[in-house]
Amino acid sequence: MMTDRRITQHPILATGEKATVNFTFNGKSYKAMSGEPVSSAMMAHGINVFNTHHKDGAPQGIFCANGQCAQCLVLVNGNPKKACITTVEEGMNVRSIEGLPELTADDVLPESKPISVIETDVLIVGAGPAGMAAATELAVANLKIIIADDKEVMGGKLGLQTHNFFGSVRDCNAGMRGMDIGTLMAEEIEELDNVDVWLNAPVVGVFSDGLVGVQKGKRYVLVRPKHFLVTAGAREKTLAFPGCDLPGVYGGGAFQTLVNRDLIKASNRLFIVGGGNVGLIAAYHAMQAGIEVLGLVEALPKCGGYKVHLDKIKRLGIPVWTSHTVLKAEGNCKLERITISEIGSNFQPIPGTEKTFEDVDTLLVAVGLAPVNELLLKAKEYGMSVYAAGDANVIAEASAAIFSGHIIGKKMLRDLGHDVDIPKEWFDILEMLRAKPGPTHDLETLHPKKSNIFPIIRCTQEIPCNPCTAVCPKDSIRTSNGRMTGIPQLVGECIGCTRCVAICPGLAITLVDTGYDPTGKTALVTIPWELPAGSVEPEQEVRTRGFEGEEIGTGKVIAMRNSGWQNRRVLLMLEVPMQEAEKVAGIRMYSARTPTTGKPATAGDDDDTIVCRCERVTKGEIISYIKEHNTTDFNALKAGLRVGMGACGGKTCTELVMRIFKQVLGRDAVIEPHVERPFTQEVPLSAFIDGGG
Question: What pLDDT, on a 0 to 100 scale, did the predictor assign at position 46?
Answer without folding.
Answer: 92
